[in-house]
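Researcher: Let's run the pair from yesterday's discussion. Sequence first, then C-alpha cells, for each.
Model: Starting with the first of the pair.
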Amino acid sequence: AAERKWHKNQKQADLKNYQLLLASFSASITTAKAEFYHNKFSSLTDSRKLFATFKSLLNPPPPPTTCLTAETLASFFTGKVAAISNQFTDVTCSSSTTCSAARCPSTEGVAFSSFTSLTENETLALLTRSRPTTCPLDPIPSNLLQTIAPAIIPAITHTINASLTSGVFPTAFKQAHVTPLLKKPSLNPAQVDNYRPVSLLPFLSKTLERAVLNQVSGFLSQNDLLHQNQSGFKKGHSTETALLSVTEALKTARAAGQSSVLILLDLSAAFDTVNHDFLLTILSNMGTSDNVLSWFRSYLTGRSFKVLWQGQLSSAHSLSTGVPQGSVLGPLLFSIYTASLGQVIHSHGFSYHCFADDTQLYLSFSPEDHSISARISQCLSDISSWMKEHHLQLNLSKTELLVIPANWPPGLRSKTTPNDPECSSTSGLQPAKTGSCHPAAH
C-alpha cells in the first residue's frame, strides 16, 4: 500500500515511508530466518542428523526425473494450440471479424500512424530501470548490459529507432526459450499435460517493447480506449483492485437484501490462441494505421520457440497464432483483443471485472425473481458464441458458478429449479454453492 501511494503521489515523504517499511520488513524476515535455523540446529544432538540437515539445506532435492524430452514437451505445447485453433473456421477478416471490430471502441478522425523516435537519454532510462531478467538468448547477462549501457547506448538507440521508423520488428527478437513448469507440485511429473510453458525473451526485445508500450498506452489513454474493467497489467491496478471491485459489489447487494450469482470464466491457452488477423483488424479500428500497424504485423508474425528441458533444447517450432507470453506488449494486446466481450456481458444486465484472461461476471437480483436461470443461460450462450467468433476456448472444467443468497424469509427457498442440470446452482433461490458450469451446453 505504501509503494502504491508513493507511485501515485511521487512525494518524497511517501518514498521515505515506503523505504522504512521495506527495511523493517526485510529485518523481520532476517530475524525470523535466524531464529528458525537456530532452533532447528540447537535441537539436534546427533551429529549424523545434524549433517543430514545441513546436506538437505545446502543441496535441495533435484527435480523429479521423467522420461519426457524437450521435443515431446514442445510438440505437446504446439499440438494443444493447434487442436484449439482447428476447431474454428479458418477465416481472415470475414464478416464475423468486422462485427467484432464494430463492437470495439473506435476513434473518429484520430489516427496513430507513426512512432516517435527515442533520444539516447530515454533509451538509457528504459534500459536501466527495467528488471534485469536474463534469457539464454541474451549474449551477456542483463545486469552487465545495464552496467555498460552508457557506452553502448548510441547503438541500442539506433536499433530501436530503426525498428520504430521502418515498422519492422527485428527477426532476432522473435525467438523464445520455453521452460516447462509443473502447474502444481502435487501433480504427476510424468504427464505432459501437467506442465505449463513459461517463455523467456531477449532483454533488448523487451526494451523495444517497452518503448512501444509507452506510446501505444498514451494514445489509448488519451482517446479513452483502455479497457475500464481490466485490472491486469494496468498501472494502479492489481489483483487487489479486481477482488475489491467484485466483493464490494456483492456485499452491497446482500446488504440491500438481494441475492447474487457470480460466474468465473476460465480460458484454455488464451494468450496462445489469439488470431492475428482479428487482432490487427481491431487495432486498425481503434485508430492504428500505416507504420504503427505494420510494426504490429511484423511483431506478431514469424515467431518461434524452443523448449529447454533438463539440459536439452528442442528444435524450433513456429507460432502462427497468439501473443507472446512473458512479453511486455502481450497483456495489453490481449486486453484489446477481448475488450468487446464486455458489451456482450452488459447486454444481459451483468456486471463484470477482468484480470488478464480471467473474467468474473456477476448479477444481483431479488430472491423472488424467477427469471434468473434463463438470463444466465442466455448470457452464457452469447459468451460462448463470442468465444468461438474470437477463436478462444472456454475451459469448462474450471469455469465455475457461485450463488450468494440474500437473507430470505422462511419458506422462500427452493421454489424453482434450474433448467440445466449441468448448472444446478443457477437457480435464483438455491442455497449458496459452487459447481462447474458448461456454457456450451446452453
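Model: Moving on to the second of the pair.
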Amino acid sequence: MSTTSLDHPLLLSVHSDDKLAIDIPNTAHQVSNDSWIQVGIVLGTGINSAFALGYAGIIMVPLGWVGGVVGLILSSAISLYASTLIAKLHEYGGRRHIRYRDLAGFIYGQTAYSLVWALQYANLFLINTGFVILGGQALKAFYLLFRDDHQMKLPYFIALAGFACVLFAIAIPHLSALRVWLGFSTFFSLVYVCIVIALSLKDGLQAPPRDYIPETKSSGIWATIGAAASLVFAYNTGMLPEIQATVREPVVKNMIKALNFQFTLGIVPMHAVTYIGYWAYGSNASSYLLNNVSGPIWLKGMANIAAFLQAIIALHIFASPTYEFLDTKYGIKGSALACKNLGFRIVVRGGYLVITAFLSALLPFLGDFMSLTGAISTFPLTFILPNHMYIVAKRKKLSLLQKSWHWLNIFFFSCISVAALVAALKLISVDSKTYYVFADL
C-alpha cells in the first residue's frame, strides 16, 4: 500500500484485499504512516500540554468541586463519543477525508467546506496563540525564580517563546516526523505534572483550610460560563481527521484504539494535576499552577523549563493543518533539507509564527483565549458538527431515537456555544480595560 499521496496530482486509489478502492486527496505530507500508539501519544500530548497547569484555576475555581469534577468527567465522555463519530466517517463515501474541511465539504458542499476551514483555522490559531503565551509565562516564571527585578517583561519572554517555536517549525517538516519528539513531549509532561502534584500535595497538607466556594456574583457568572467553554477546550478535537490521516490501515479501527488510549490512560495526568491543584490552593489556584507551588528553586525551575519545551512541541501539532495546507498549495515536495523547502518553511512558517507571537504579546490573556476558542470553534467542531454529519451520513441506518439523541446534542451545545461566546467577549473586554496592551501579567 502507498503511504503518500504525492504520486498523483489529484487522488490516490488505495487497494486492499477485502475493501474497495479508497481515494486519498493530494497532500504534501505523509499519510498512513504511523502506528495507533504513536497517534494516541499525539492526542495525549494535546490533553497533557502545559495548558493542564491552568485548569485548576480556570475551570475548578469558577465551577467548584461538584461542577468542575462532573464537568470534566462528562466532557471526557462526550468528547470521546463525538470523536468516535468523526473517526467512523473517515472513509465515508469511498474516499479518505484527511482534513476536517474535506469531510464537511463532501457531506454538505463548498460553502460548508469554506466555513469549516475558517472555524478550524480560527480554532488552531487561537490554540497556537495560547501555547506561545504559555511558553512565555513558563520562561518568565523560570526567570523570576532567580531574579526578582522585573526588568524582563512578559512580552519579551513571549517573543523568545515565539522564536523557539519558529526554529522547531523549520526543523520538523510534518506531523509524522515528530516521532522521537513525542517521547520528549511525554517526558516533559511527566516532569511538570509530577513536580506540580508533589509540591501541591506538600503545600495542601501544610496549609490551613481553603475556600472552595465558587463565586456567585455577576462577574462570577461570566467566569462560570467561560469555564464551561474551557471544559471542551481541554479535549479539543478540532483537527481529528488530520491526525487520523497519519494512522496506518485499518484506519478506523486503529484510530478508535488511539482515542480509547487518549481518554483512558491519556487523561489521567491532566485530571490528577487539576484536582490536586484545586484541593491544595482552593479559590487561590492560578491559571498557571507553578505560580502557586512552593518548594526548591531547582525543582520549580525544572518544571517551568519542561512546560516551556512541551509547549513548543504541542504547538507544532496544532499548527500542522495550517502547515499542510501551505505545503500542499505551493507544491512542496522532496527532501525537507532541500534549499527551496527549507527556505519556504523559514519564510512562510516563520511569518505565521511571528504574527502569532506578536498577537500573543499584545493580548496575553490566556484564560480568556481558552474560553473564546472553546466558544467560537471548539464547540461547533467538537460537538455540533460531528453529531449533524453523522445524522446526514447515516440517516438511513439510524432509528428515530438515535436521530433524536443527536439532535438533542446539537441543540444543547449550540446554546452553550452562544452563551460561552458572550461570556468570553465579556471577560476579554473587562481584562482589556484592566490591563494595557503588551501587559506584564
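Researcher: Give me one sentence on the second I can quote.
Model: Confidence is low (pLDDT under 50) at residues 1-20.
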